[in-house]
Amino acid sequence: MLTIFSTPKPFVGHSNIIQRNALKSWTLLHPDAEVILFGDEQGAAEACRDLGIRHEPQVRRNERGTKYLNYLFERARDMSRHKFLCYANCDIMLTPDFLKALEIVTKVHSQFLMVGRRWDTDVTEPWNFGQPDWAQRLRSLALLKGKRNGPSWVDYFCFSRDLYYGKMPPFLIGRNGWDPWLMWHARESKVHLIDASQMVIAVHQNHDYAYLGAGPAAQQSKAEVDYNWSLGCTTAWHYYHVKAATKTLSEGRLHVNHMALFGPVKTGAMTYLRYAWWACLKATRPIRHRLGLRSAISRP
Fold first, then answer.
1. What are residue 113's DSSP bridge partners?
2. I need a surface site. Which of 66, 122, 196, 200 has the fewest CB within 10 A?
C-alpha cells in the first residue's frame, strides 16, 4: 500500500536513538509497508539490517556531500512496489493515525499530496515498541508535553506515485526551499493538497542542529540555501504551506478548505513585506547609527 523513504544523518549518539525510533514506527504502520533508507552514513547499514528495511547506499551528492532531493524521489519511485509514496524526515515518528488518514484520502482521490504539521517533542531514549499501547503513549506524550509547530513546519509528504517524477528541480536536502515547492507543485498540477494536521500526530523528536556547522561550514550551508531559492520556482508567491491545502482532514472526513487561495497570497505578501523591512533597515543603518537608534531598532 505505501512506500516510505528517507535519508539519515550518521547513526551516532542521540541521532541513532531518534532515527531508529522513527524507522521502527514506519515499519509498524502496516505489514506490507515498505521502508527505503538512502545513504551510506555511519551506522545506516546496521540500522537497516536490524530493522529489516531496504538500504540503498547510493545517493547523488554535490561537491560538499549534500544530497540531492530529486534523486531520492526518482529512485524511490522507480524502486517502490506501491502506488503511494511518502518522504519523511528521519526523525519523524508516525503512528497508525497516519495510515487511517491515508486510507480516507485514497478512497476519494487517486492523485494527491497529503501533508501535516509536526509536533516537536522531547524523546531521549529508545521507544518501547513492545508495549501494545506504544502508539497511544507516543500520541499522549506529544499532545501533553510537545508543541505543534507552525504551518510551514512540514516533515512528511505523502503523494501519488507519479506526482513528482521528472519534474523536481535539483534541490539540496536539509536546506530551506524545497518543501514549499512540493506543496506549490501539487496545487500547480491540479491535484488536491490535503492538510492532515488535525488527524495525524507526526512526532518530531527534538534534536540539536550542529550538523549545519559553524564558521565556514555555516556560510556554506547558507550558500546552499541560497542555491535552493535560486532555482527559479520558489519566489515568495510560491512559498506554500499547509494553509494552501484545498482540503483538510479531521474527524475522519475530508473537508473543503474554502480559504485555500488566501494561504499563499498572505504568505507571499508577508514575505515581501519582510524583504522590504530588512532592505529599509540596511539602507538606513548609517543614519540610525549616527542618531544612536541602533539598539532601539534591533530590540524585539
1. 159, 193
2. 122
For CA atoms 292, 297, 298, 299, give the dihedral sign: positive
pLDDT band for 200, please (50, 70, 90 cuts). Answer: very high
Strands (E), 43-191: 54-56, 84-88, 92-93, 112-121, 147-148, 154-160
Strand runs labelled E in the chain: 2-6, 34-38, 54-56, 84-88, 92-93, 112-121, 147-148, 154-160, 192-195, 202-205, 247-250, 253-256
Q: How far apart are CA 38 and CA 36, in angstroms?
A: 7
- Which grid coordinates are listed for 222? 547558507
Estimate the crossing angle of helix 13-27 against helix 44-51, to 10 degrees: 30
* Burial degree of 122 (CB within 10 A; 0-12, 13-18, 19+): exposed
Q: Which helix (H) or strand (E) holds 141?
A: helix 134-145
Rg of the chain in Å (alpha carbons) = 20
Phi-psi region of 52 (alpha: psi -120 to 50; beta: other; left: phi over 0): left
DSSP bridge partners of 142: none
DSSP code for 85: E
DSSP 3-state assignment of 4? strand
Q: Is 221 buried (19+), middle (13-18) or exposed (0-12) by CB count in 10 A? A: buried
> Within 13 A of 154's CA, how many CA atoms are on the CB side?
30
Query: What whole-number distance in Å separates Cα of residue 289 and Cα of residue 300?
Result: 17
pTM of the model: 0.84
Q: How far apart are CA 300 and CA 291, in angstroms?
A: 19
Per-residue pLDDT of 204-240, as tens digits, reads 999 876 655 545 555 677 889 888 888 855 455 567 8
Q: ∠230-9-35 over CA atoms, to 5°?
A: 95
